[in-house]
């Protein structure tokens, strides 16, 4: 069964550095998402992406965050200047249309030192 | 605003016992509801979904859930729990036109032999 893949599984970065989290959604999917889960807290929506543009973003998704689909397969989340509070598990998700459920990757654990 | 409440943070059951995980939602229109499971170090796996129609929905791994509009609930059940069911379970509602998921805080299930 096709799946969403995320790399790396764990990223350790110094505060203030840029980080790029990578996702390969399922190939025929058109809608893409990033969520994050701070340790011990609930999964929170960050951003949705469709037709090569952001559809919706949360209050968390400030100017330090950006998303890109640089080619036909990858979907990336960039944090420009990381802060300690960016430490979390970041999940990528995708689906083919609004009547289908979202499929999640295994996540990238981001640790900011 | 839309929200999801999972009243039980931790639940412990014996293997072979029945299970019910509670979920209450707040949503103005007919909700699209989901249960996801997260095993340690893994991503979010879809157990089942409710979009419309029959209010009792069947999912994978022997799970089922019942949508009760009058109680704004979507409780997850399993008649006989297996040790491999130990995981964290998240209830979610689909929100808005751009399909973001709003998650509950999760219920961590422990299974005693």
Q: Work out the number of β strands of chain A.
A: 11
Give the helix/strand class of chain B.
mainly beta
SSE topology string of chain B: EEEEEEEEEEEE
The largest interface is: A-B, 27 and 22 residues
Describe this structure in words.
The complex is a heterodimer of chains A (113) and B (113). By secondary structure, chain A is mainly β. Chain A contains no helices and eleven strands. Chain A has strands at 5-7, 10-13, 19-24, 31-37, 43-50, 53-57, 65-68, 75-79, 88-95, 103-104, 108-112. The radius of gyration of chain A is 13 Å and the shape is globular. Chain A starts with a strand and ends with a strand. The model of chain A has no long low-confidence stretch (mean pLDDT 93). Chain B is mostly beta strands and 113 residues long. In chain B, the strands form three sheets. In chain B, strands 2, 5, 6, 10, 11 and 12 form a six-stranded mixed β-sheet that branches. Chain B has a four-stranded antiparallel β-sheet with strand order 3-9-8-7, with no helix packed on it. Chain B is globular, with a radius of gyration of 13 Å. Classes of the chains: A mainly beta (113), B mainly beta (113). Chain A binds chain B through residues 4, 6, 31, 33, 35, 41-45, 48, 50, 55-56, 58, 91, 93, 95, 98-99, 101-107, and chain B through 34, 36, 41-46, 49, 51, 90, 92, 96, 98-106.
């Amino acid at each position: 069964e096709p799946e969403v893949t995320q790399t790396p599984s764990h990223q350790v970065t110094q505060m203030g550095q840029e980080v790029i989290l990578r996702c390969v959604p399922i190939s025929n999917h058109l809608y893409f998402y990033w969520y994050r889960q701070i340790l011990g807290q609930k999964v929170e929506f960050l951003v949705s992406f469709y037709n090569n543009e952001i559809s919706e973003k949360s209050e968390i998704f400030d100017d330090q965050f950006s998303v890109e689909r640089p080619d036909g397969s990858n979907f990336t989340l960039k944090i420009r200047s990381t802060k300690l509070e960016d430490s979390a598990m970041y999940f990528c998700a995708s689906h083919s249309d609004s009547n289908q459920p979202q499929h999640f990757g295994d996540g990238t654990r981001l640790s900011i030192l | 605003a839309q929200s999801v409440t999972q009243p039980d943070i931790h639940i412990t059951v014996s293997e072979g016992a029945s299970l019910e995980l509670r979920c209450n939602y707040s949503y103005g229109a007919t909700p699209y509801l989901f249960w996801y499971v997260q095993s340690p170090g893994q991503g979010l796996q879809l157990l089942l979904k409710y979009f419309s129609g029959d209010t009792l929905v069947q999912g994978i791994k022997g799970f089922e859930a019942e949508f009760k509009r009058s109680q704004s609930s979507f409780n997850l059940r399993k008649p006989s729990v297996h040790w491999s069911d130990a995981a964290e379970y998240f209830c979610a509602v689909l929100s808005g036109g751009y399909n973001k998921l709003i998650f509950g805080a999760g219920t961590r299930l422990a299974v005693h032999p």
